[in-house]
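Example record for the data management plan.
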Amino acid sequence: MRALLAAVCALSITLTSAPAASQHQQMDEALDISRMLLAPPPGVDPAYGAFQRGYYLTALRLAMPRAQQGDATAQTLIGEIYANGLGVPQDIPRAISWYAQADANGDIQASFQLAMIYHTGTGVERNRRRAGTLFKKAADGGHVAAKYNLGLLHVEGVYAEPSLTLAAELIGAAAEAGYAEAQYDFAIMLLEGAGIAPDTERAVALMREAANQGLVEAQIEYATLVYLGQGVERNRQEAARLYGLAAQSGNPVAQTRYAMMLAAGEGVEVDMETAAMFRALARRQGLSDANLDRLLQSASSEELGAGEERARFWPGTAPTISAQALDPGEPLPAEIDWTNG
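Corresponding structural encoding:
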């Protein structure tokens, strides 16, 4: 409280040097801050407000007294801070302790975060059965990501009942809530009729939504649907755009497919150099494609070389000197005028 009041005082001191036109606005802001600190209005959590603005130590200080009195949301907030090392050294055991208290007190976000820790074995012995129990608890409470993860466990059928029907219900609910990964997986289930009746139209709509949210896997899959005209009007330009977006994110499958479209001039202008660059990037990740190699056979050695040089510096750009080439027999100049040209 002392530090926060000091901040209000510091703000009031700056008013004497402020232009007259802005003094009233600054005074209003100062009054708003003091009211907020001394008597927070209903529905506003100052600890979470500090957390959201990046004031993690302030958030920790504000949350601790409440957490020690059994406030579940404050306990979860402290768990988040220690789990991610925000303003403090990362401390997974301490995070687990706070998450566990919040979970026992009914906070589904804590249940989910604790489930993820056990699911991945982050800082603790991996226990996916325990994770499944916690995912179900959070999912029953309405946690969207927990529904999705529990659905995946039902697909796997080892740490939860094997049931594609239950998986489709859970993943579908998360998809309808706008969770991009769930939209992608549920769209695949709808296309294949896995656990639910096939519905190509709905699958395409969900895949498009996930792609628009920036999910790379969905961008690639939707680009393929658009390229083939499967459940949607065929559009090579849109397919190229989506493959290009996913290629720029570093996905080797997208890089290969986009390179093929660039080399063939399909849905986009022919660009052998850029196609060669993306081929080199995909190869760097272990993916080669004989069809792409055949398409690039018509590229010149200059285009191939330039593309591979660009790949060396990607995602940056290769340095260039825009000056006349030096005669190999001439000595190098003492200085190069980089501003020339």
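Summary line stored alongside the record: The first helix runs from residue 2 to 13.
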